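## retry 2 of 3
previous attempt timed out at serialization; input unchanged, resubmitting
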Amino acid sequence: MSYLFPSTTITIEAALRDVASGGPKARALAAHALGDVTDPVERRRALDALVRALDDDRPDVRAEAAASLGQLEDASVLPHLIKRLGDGVAHVRQNAAIALGTLRDARGFDPLADALRDGLPDLRFQAATSLAEIDPARAFEPLIAALGDSDPQVAGSAALAIGAVGSALAELAERARGVLRGHAGHADAGARFEVAYALAELRDASGRDALASRIADDAQAWDAVTALGWLGAKDELAGAITGTNVPHEAAVLAAGLLLALDPAHEAARRALADALRSRKINVRALAVEQLDATGGAWAQPALEKLARSGKGEGLDEVIASALRAIAERGAP
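## retry succeeded, writing output
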């Protein structure tokens, strides 16, 4: 989904018209909408229109067109997306790289490998992820080389991709761990965190301290808590629950992950019960989701109370799901 245009009710005919002849914003909106076409006949028309939109003079239109072509998953557009890897605007070439990864067509591998080696930093950053999506095994060596990239964000992206490859291919997991451990002390804090996250995905705790150091960081707290959950790091998760500067959403996630490890953990139970009373609906919804996954009979009264209150409005289905899950877990 594009956050530029989060929703639309535009018809296919209107989209085809606007993408060709509308104003700049209308063309971008239409290009975005065409990525949702499902009818086989209309998909062909949408593909043709989007390929033409890749040459639009407005970068927002080209970027939306590239993203939509990836969503439509038709390999016939591959040469046009490859061409856009050389676009002069960052978010256009990035969207083209993302689309090539989504298509998973082997013909997109070499252009992305070239981009990872010689492209601009923003393109190298995205090419790492897309290569791993197309052919994880073949991507492994180029990704290892990219760990030494001069741009720390590219190195971090390569680390995450190596973690994903190692998780997907058991035969490469141990080598992935070894390579990542060698970069766990990266000079850049952001790259160190990404390496630590990738190691955690491979259930390697070598970067545990780097993860724990970011649980109070607004941008990285959620990922830090997620990775610490993979490692079964009870002490750090407990610290995330009680930490005064930890973002509320990350603290609620930590409580849920800690309950999965220790169903009787009192602080985790209290944190989730308190979150059900939060003023923020997203926090209440997250708490319900965590209880759906890990809650016990102790949580049933609080969930039923939420369902009856005004704060439960809009959460009926997730509350009902959580209550069912709790009942099933408690059944003989």
